[in-house]
Amino acid sequence: KLALKEQVTDDLLPRAFVRTHRTTAYLDCRRGWMMVDSGTASKAEALDAKLREALPPFPPAFPRTKLAPHTAMTDWLAAGEAPYGFELDADCELKDGSENGAVIRCTRMDLTAEEIRQHIATGKQVTRVGLIWQEKVRFMLTDTLQLKRIQFLDVLQEEASQA
Question: For residue 45, what are the CA distances in angstroms to 26, 37, 157?
Answer without folding.
Answer: 14, 12, 31
